[in-house]
Design a protein that fits this description.
DhaK_dom; ATP binding; mainly alpha; globular; 10 helices; Serine Threonine Protein Phosphatase 5, Tetratricopeptide repeat
């Protein structure tokens, strides 16, 4: 099915032609209105709960964490684009940098009421400002993670948030551990937690090592899966990004 959002393209397709492979099909009709054009319509829903309120100290730390992660993602733009260019379309870094700049701008006026609300608001940025499959996937991950903070903000809630993000990206993205995607980094962290590990420096290090190990894998999901194994010699940019995100988040929290 070809969905058209531009009447000019529709007119070109309907124009008379002598091309032997175009057998004068019926008129295609009117172009549709893009369903994502209205930013007030969200794939995420709105939810009935916004979580327990932040204390002032928690709100200050949350703002510091978000700004630190965004700064890191912006600084990694060229690195991630280079990794993505080896076996993808070379825009992974630009995607994260664009989202990070949008989040940074929104943080200037955003009232930090709770952890759940903050993550949900960030997920909206990915949905509205990034768009595409990647934007939708990260939006769903963050929205799912936000649910872990509905009643409290504890270390155990962070564990639950990570698990929810991991489960959501597999459910909607279709990738599995070993497919050479960001799932591999998340999987390593979740497996550490399942083994009983609760030290976040150890959990984060496991994610970083798993991200680097994707350089030895053959892609079975994402754009890289359409390329030859010979060009898949560098770590997956999504895995590198998510593990770097975890490292910066933990480093900021423990300061």
């Amino acid at each position: 099915v070809l969905r058209l959002f531009d009447n000019n393209i529709l007119n070109y397709l309907d124009a008379p032609t002598l091309a032997p492979g175009w057998h004068g099909a019926d008129k295609l009709g009117k172009a549709e209105t893009a369903p994502s054009a209205d930013k007030n319509i969200s794939i995420l829903g709105h939810g009935s709960s916004r979580g327990v309120p932040f204390t002032k100290e928690q709100a200050d730390l949350a703002r510091k964490c978000v700004n630190a992660v965004c700064s890191k993602m912006i600084s990694m733009e060229s690195e991630l684009n280079a990794l993505d260019g080896a076996a993808g379309d070379g825009d992974c870094g630009s995607t994260f940098a664009h989202a990070s700049r949008a989040i940074t701008e929104r943080m200037k006026t955003l009232e930090l009421s709770s952890a759940q609300d903050l993550l949900f608001r960030i997920s909206e940025v990915f949905e509205q400002e990034v768009g595409g499959t990647g934007g939708a996937l990260y939006a769903l991950m963050l929205s799912a993670a936000s649910e872990a903070f509905a009643k409290s903000v504890t270390s155990q809630d962070f564990v639950m948030a990570l698990r929810k993000a991991y489960e959501t990206v597999q459910k909607y993205g279709g990738a599995r551990p070993g497919d050479r995607t960001l799932v591999d980094a998340l999987h390593a962290a979740v497996e550490k937690i399942r083994s009983g590990e609760r030290r976040w420096d150890v959990i984060t290090e496991a994610a970083i090592k798993a991200a680097q190990a994707t350089a030895e894998m053959k892609a079975r999901a994402g754009r890289a899966s359409y390329t030859a194994k010979e060009v898949q010699t560098k770590p997956d940019p999504g895995a590198v990004a998510i593990s770097s995100f975890m490292r910066v988040l933990w480093d900021t929290i423990k300061q």
